[in-house]
Design a protein that fits this description.
The chain is α+β, with helices and mostly antiparallel strands and 721 residues long. It is 46% helix and 15% strand. The longest helix has 42 residues.
């Protein structure tokens, strides 16, 4: 009786704490797994569709018209495999096809027929077909007495085996096991998998990236961030690599385009594949992010971006080679700055600590619970304390090959040589038989964008950072010989290594995939020798990461269980790249005192920003049509203008790029591409007051495609009269 009364008293205190686990228990927060939407009152929240109309593995449904395009989302908008997604999602394909003579990034691209469409190597399209909870099967391999590293490896191996078995039973499909709740719930998803993807239409960067990094993560926004691609399959309908005789894929469902768009306060929802959120993580994790990892990313990525921009300033060919990499880094760098600002602005670490103190009191209030989880939070804290202590060296080591492409190529072939010698199920995922062709292809594509002088600068800078992080005493002799001395000497050593390596020669690099570790070293290529010398260091780090992952997986699984019991509520699992639904309304917000940001921008507002200096340049045709008030059917009658971008209160994160913005009937009214700066913190916490997503209004998409660039065949193909 004593403990029951204690729990009652405790909950009474908690009832008055408005901030208690605010990042988890908000009423409308959530990227709901597609398997869980049946638990929602869809009619009450504003939908005219049932859960079965949205997703039903046994019938044609809305989800059949949604696909994953590499790390983004797309929608099928015609029966001929036409996909709408973001310009920045198609960016790598546009960049790969561009040359100084045919500069599709600057000038845009429009194929007037299927034969003119450009292959997009490295792109894949996936459509969710079904799912199965495999938690029991995955966790059946976890045995008492396992080390944390053994636990991680056993789970990884079981996941790969389940994927392999599912693909054998469903020929032509792709299987993926996703961890929904850390250490607790696992779901196997089945996907239709399409490997022939082609570029159909892309506006110039002056539309698709209007405002550039100045406007990125900001509102108001006037960016036409959209492009069209097309999925192709073999004549028999099976997935196939690119071939001239492939035919357009016929989706089971086409997303209807609602050319009338939306207005303020209208209901909207997103269906898409958000990347990763970490909303259930502890204050010690958030402190590590705020004090260590995010500042590191901002500093290093900022330097890399500035270096690459300088390299391409006076050479369009170099600028094109580096453009995709710059864009990717710049997106992460600014998001990281936004997250730092958000964590600091709302004092989130301290708030989470208060929440955890209350949870600890709840745990300690019951002897059985205390015995089970009394040290839970302190054990998690200890893991992050260890990560923090080792962060300077570990982060610089991990970024050495990612910053210097020559070393990245060398590490990939060395890692492949070691991993491919193992049984398929024992290998790291990227080297399994099902993934190895894509790993090789990605290296080949990266080789196409290699720039020698930039790589020399990258290596020299990473050597400086490694030395500052204390690497001299820890690295093997060969690596150690690169460190020390003056900046000039360091640059000379880096330049010599890059110049003398053949790893950036495509023919040599691809041949390396057929060599053993011993054969790679015998080439005496300096990059291969260096990375072979460093390989044991990277293996030890991989092992350490698996140990940490295993420990945190077990601890976070227990944490979720304790919080669920304490709060008496079901949680929405963190985003993990699987299909999710989120909903909200087109609505304004107030990011700071006396400032209200309204939710629809217009063509006039876009032209008001034009300065004639990049990134605020607009194609002349846009101004001509605006002055003539030639808006066609794409005008918003309430604004007497063409709406450009919209702001809405859905819960989104990376991976939601390209997600369809759908009205209550499941019709396309826009394409999601960003969040407001204040909402960069969504990865850690969602809050209706400041979390806003940004998308391009479908009327701007159609007006640009139709009126500005004359792609009337696409308007017709989408069934817009």
């Amino acid at each position: 009786m004593k403990h029951i009364l204690g729990a009652k008293a405790l909950r009474k205190v908690i009832a008055g704490a408005l901030v208690l686990f605010s990042a988890i228990a908000v009423a409308d927060e959530g990227m709901f797994p597609i398997s869980d939407i049946g638990s929602l009152d869809l009619k009450k929240i504003g939908l005219d569709l049932t859960a079965e109309q949205i997703f039903n593995p046994n019938e044609v449904c809305l989800v059949d018209g949604i696909c994953r395009v590499n790390g983004c989302t797309g929608s099928f908008v015609s029966s001929k495999g036409l996909i709408i997604t973001n310009h920045h999602c198609a960016f790598a394909a546009i960049q790969a096809a561009s040359t100084p003579e045919h500069d599709y990034l600057n000038n845009g691209f429009s194929a007037s027929s299927n034969i003119e469409e450009i292959p997009a190597p490295g792109y894949t399209v996936r459509i969710t077909e079904g799912y199965e909870d495999v938690s029991t099967k995955v966790l059946s391999v976890v045995k008492p007495g396992m080390t944390f590293s053994e636990r991680t490896k056993a789970i990884e191996k079981q996941q790969k085996q389940l994927e392999k078995d599912a693909e054998a039973a469903n020929v032509g499909m792709r299987a993926e096991v996703a961890e929904m709740f850390t250490g607790e719930r696992y779901v196997l998803f089945l996907y239709t998998y399409i490997k022939d993807v082609r570029l159909v239409f892309a506006p110039p960067a002056s539309v698709g990236n209007f405002g550039g990094e100045v406007d990125n993560w900001e509102w108001p926004r006037h960016t036409g961030d959209f492009s069209f691609m097309r999925a192709y399959v073999a004549p028999d309908g099976s997935s196939a690599d690119y071939a001239k005789n492939n035919v357009p894929y016929q989706p089971k469902r086409v997303i209807k385009v609602a050319a009338e768009g939306v207005n303020e306060n209208d209901f909207v929802m997103l269906l898409g594949y958000p990347g990763r959120t970490v909303r259930h993580n502890t204050a010690s994790f958030l402190q590590y992010e705020e004090n260590v990892r995010l500042p590191f990313v901002v500093d290093l990525y900022g330097w890399e971006i500035a270096t690459m921009e300088a390299a391409g300033k006076d050479d369009r060919g170099v600028a094109l080679k580096l453009s995709s990499r710059i864009k990717s880094l710049a997106n992460v760098e600014k998001r990281s700055r936004g997250q730092l600002k958000g964590l600091n602005r709302i004092g989130f670490v301290n708030k989470r600590r208060v929440d955890e103190e209350v949870l600890q009191t709840f745990i300690d209030s019951d002897p059985a619970r205390k015995a089970r989880a009394g040290n839970l939070l302190s054990d998690i804290d200890a893991v992050y304390a260890e990560i923090t202590a080792n962060a300077p060296l570990e982060m610089n080591l991990s970024n050495l090959p990612s910053a210097c492409q020559t070393l990245s190529f060398a590490f990939t072939v060395i890692d492949a040589a070691h991993e491919r010698a193992k049984e398929d199920i024992e290998r790291e995922s990227q080297y399994t038989d099902r993934n190895y062709p894509l790993t090789r292809q990605r290296l080949q594509l990266a080789l196409n964008d290699f720039h020698l002088e930039t790589d020399q600068l990258m290596l020299a800078e990473m050597l400086r950072r490694l030395e500052a992080a204390g690497a001299t005493k820890l690295l093997p002799t060969v690596a150690g010989e690169l460190l020390g001395g003056s900046e000039t000497e360091r640059q000379q050593r880096a330049t010599k290594l890059i110049n003398n390596s053949k790893m950036h020669n495509a023919e040599f690099a691809m041949k390396c995939f057929d060599m053993t570790p011993e054969q790679l070293v015998s080439t005496k290529d300096p990059a291969l020798v260096l990375m072979s010398e460093l390989y044991p260091v990277y293996l030890a780090q991989r092992e350490k990461n698996k140990e940490r992952e295993g420990k945190l997986s077990q601890l976070y699984g227990l944490l979720i269980s304790e919080k669920r019991e304490f709060l008496k509520t079901a949680f929405v699992p963190d985003a993990n790249g699987t299909l999710r639904m989120t909903y909200g309304r087109v609505e304004s917000y107030s990011p700071e005192d006396a400032v209200i940001k309204t939710p629809i921008t217009t063509l006039k507002g876009m032209l008001d920003k034009v300065t004639g200096i990049d990134p605020f340049i607009a194609p002349p045709r846009i101004g001509e049509l605006y002055r003539a008030q030639d808006f066609g059917r794409y005008v918003n009658p309430k604004l007497n203008d063409v709406p450009v971008a919209i702001l809405y209160s859905t819960d989104s994160t990376g991976g939601n790029s390209g997600s369809p913005i759908l009205n209550s009937r499941g019709e396309l009214v826009g394409v999601n591409f960003d969040r407001a700066f204040e909402a960069t913190i969504n990865d850690f916490a969602w809050n209706h007051a400041y979390s806003r997503s940004i998308g391009v209004d479908i009327r701007y998409v159609l007006w640009i495609s139709d009126k500005v660039y004359g792609a009337k065949h696409l308007i017709s193909e989408m069934g817009i009269e």
